[in-house]
Amino acid sequence: MSKDPINTAKQRRRSDQVTLSQVAQMAGVSPITASRALNYPDKVSDSARHSVLEAVESLGYVPNLVAGSLASSRSRLIAVIVPSLINSVFVEVIKGLQETLEAEGYQILLGNTDYDLDREYQLVRTFLGWSCSALVTAGLRHNSACHTLLANWDHPIMEVMELGQGMDLNVGLDHVAAGRCMANHLFDQGYRHIVYVGARLAHDYRAGMRYEGHKEVLQAKGIEAPLVELDTLGSLQAGADSLAKVLAKYPQAQAIHFANDDLAAGALLAAQRQGLNVPGDIAIAGFNGLPLGQHVTPQLTTILSPREEMGRLAAKELIRRLSGKNVYRRQHDVGFTLQIGGST
Amino acid sequence: MSKDPINTAKQRRRSDQVTLSQVAQMAGVSPITASRALNYPDKVSDSARHSVLEAVESLGYVPNLVAGSLASSRSRLIAVIVPSLINSVFVEVIKGLQETLEAEGYQILLGNTDYDLDREYQLVRTFLGWSCSALVTAGLRHNSACHTLLANWDHPIMEVMELGQGMDLNVGLDHVAAGRCMANHLFDQGYRHIVYVGARLAHDYRAGMRYEGHKEVLQAKGIEAPLVELDTLGSLQAGADSLAKVLAKYPQAQAIHFANDDLAAGALLAAQRQGLNVPGDIAIAGFNGLPLGQHVTPQLTTILSPREEMGRLAAKELIRRLSGKNVYRRQHDVGFTLQIGGST
DNA sequence: AAAACGAATGGTAGCGCTATCATGACAGCG
DNA sequence: CGCTGTCATGATAGCGCTACCATTCGTTTT
C-alpha cells in the first residue's frame, strides 16, 4: 500500500504525434512561449516567434486542437443545423456562412434534422458537447428541451431563415409578408381563383407562414384561398404531379401559388409538355428565385430571397459578437423581392 | 520561494457546466464507472447504469466531448472536404454520407476548397488537429504537402467521386469511361461534328477526364473533337451563353457534349427560347442525371451518376473500417448509366 | 536614486474526461 | 483448500494544451 510505485510510469502517448513541447524544446523556449508564438504572435519577441515557426516547419507540427479547446474552452467550431440538404435553399445559406466563417478561421460542424425537432435537440446536445463557439440553426421553432438547453447556453445563437423574436441573434425574412406580397400580385393581375400548393407544411412551416399571408390577403378581398398540401417534399417531380391534381380538384383555378420554385418550375415544365398555356390557361408563381425560374419559358414569377446573403450576414454578425464587439441589432431583416416573369 | 502556496488554489472552471464527477457523485459511484455507464453500458451493473442515467437526467449533464476526445484520442468526427457547394453533385454526396454517418453517431466537419488544392491542404491540417476519425475528400489529386501529411496519418482516408489508385479507400466512377460512353452514343446516333463544352477544366479536372474519353473515341474514328472551355463555373446561365458562342465558332456542329447537366439544360432551354430545334438543329448531351434533365422537353440525354449512393457507400465502408472490420475491397466502382432522352 | 511600470518569459496547475492497472468479491475446479 | 478466472468497481495518472500568476529585466517616472 505504501510501496512507491516508481515503475508504474504509464505510457499513454499512443501516436507519434509531434507535440508543442517538442517544438518548444527545439526552438529553445518554454512550451507556453511556443503556444503564444502560434496563437498571439505579437505577444512574443520576433526572435522567439521566428524560431518557433521554424521548429514547427521542420518537425511538421500539427496543433492538437482538441487539447487546445479543452484548455481554453474555446473551439472555433460553429455548429450549423439545417432541416434538409435536398432543398438547395439551405445549401446556399451554408455556403454564405462557410465562406465568411472559414476566412476567419472557424470550422463548420454540420447537422441535418430532416425537419425533425427532436433530432435537432439531439444535434444541439452533441454540438454543445464540442464547446462550439456559436450555433446557427434554421428557424425559430424548437422543442422545449432544446429551448431550455439553449437558453442556458452562454454562447451566441443565430437563428436564420425567418424573422421574429428569437433566442439571441436573428437574420431572416418575413415569410408571412412574402405570402401576402405574392397574393397581392396575383390579385392585381386579375386572378380570382388562386390555389396555394405546398408540401408538408407541418414540417416546412415557413411555407405554411407564406400560406397564412396569402390567405389573409385573399380573404380580406372576399376570395377563397384553397390549399392543396402534398405529402412529399418539394421537387420538380412533385410540382409536375401536382398540376393535374390541382386542375382536377379546382377546374376553375386561374393561378397556382406554389410554396417554392422547385414545385412551380416542375408544374410549369409539365404544363408545357401537356400543351397548356402559361399563364393563359393557368398562371404559376413560386418562391425563392432559383436560377431555373429565369430560364424556363415563360419566366417564372417568384419572390427572390437573398439566401447566400443571409448566410454571409449571419456569419458576419456572429463574428462581430465573437470578437467581443457590441451587436446593435439583434434582428436583421434581409427582405425579399417580387420578381415578375411571364408566368403570371 | 519555499512558501507553501496554500492559498494559490486556482479556480479555472469558467462555466457552471455539469461534469461527469458531479453525475458520479450524485449516482454514488466513481467517475470512471459513470464514464463506463455512458460509453460502455454493458460493462457496468444494471443498478449502477440506472442510477447514473438518472443523475444525468436530473442534472442535465451534457458530456464534454472535447475532454473525452483528448483522453481517448477518438473523436467521432469525420472530416468531409469538397471543392464546391454550388455544384449540387457534391451536396448529394454529402447527404449520402451524412445520413449514414449520423445514424452511427458520427458528426461531419465540413470544408470547402473552392477547387483549390492549397486550400485543401490547409483544411486537412486543421481537421487532423481535431483528431478526426476519418477523412473524406473529393478527388484523388492533392498537392504534395497534403499528400505527405495524409500518407503519415493513421486513420482511414476515403477519396470519392473518381476511381483510381488512391491513398487508402476509394469510391467513385470512371470519368474517362463516362466520356467515352457518351461519345460513342453520339457517334452511334449519326453525329459527326461534335463539340465538347466544359467549364474550368483545370479545376474541374474530372470534366477534363470525361473530355479525354470523348476525344479518344472520336479520334479513333477519325473525327475531330473540338473543345470549348468556359471560364465561369458551370451553371444554367453559362450553358445558355455558351450555345451562341459554340454555334458561331463551329457552324457545322451537329451535337454538343456538355461537361454537366447544368450547362446542358441551360443550353437546351436557351435553344428553346431561340426557336432552335433540339436535336434537329443541334443535339445536346450532359452528365450527372440531374432531375431537371427529365423535365425539359425534349428530355436530356445524360449519364446518370449515383451520387447519394456514392456517399452512402463511402460512409458504410468507413464505418466498417472504423469498427475494426477488415475491408476486402479498397476500391469501389459505383458505375454510371447512359440515360437516353430526346435531346440526341 | 528609488519607485513604478511594461514587455517578455516561464512555472505550475489544471481543463474534464478515459486508459491502465489494481483490487476485492465470488464462482468453478482439481 | 488453494488456485485460477471472471466480473464490477475504483485509484491514479495522464491526453496536449493554455489560464493564471510570478519573475526578470530594461525603461520610464517622480
Automatic annotation (TrEMBL), chains A, B:
InterPro entries reported in the protein's UniProt record: HTH_LacI (IPR000843), LacI/GalR-like_sensor (IPR046335), Lambda_DNA-bd_dom_sf (IPR010982), Peripla_BP_I (IPR028082)
Gene3D superfamilies registered for this protein in UniProt: 3.40.50.2300, lambda repressor-like DNA-binding domains (1.10.260.40)
Domain HTH lacI-type: 18-72
Pfam family for this entry, one: Peripla_BP_3
Molecular functions (GO terms): DNA-binding transcription factor activity; transcription cis-regulatory region binding
Coiled coil (UniProt feature): none
Keywords: DNA-binding, Transcription, Transcription regulation
PANTHER family: LACI-RELATED TRANSCRIPTIONAL REPRESSOR (PTHR30146), TRANSCRIPTIONAL REGULATOR (PTHR30146:SF33)
Protein name: HTH lacI-type domain-containing protein
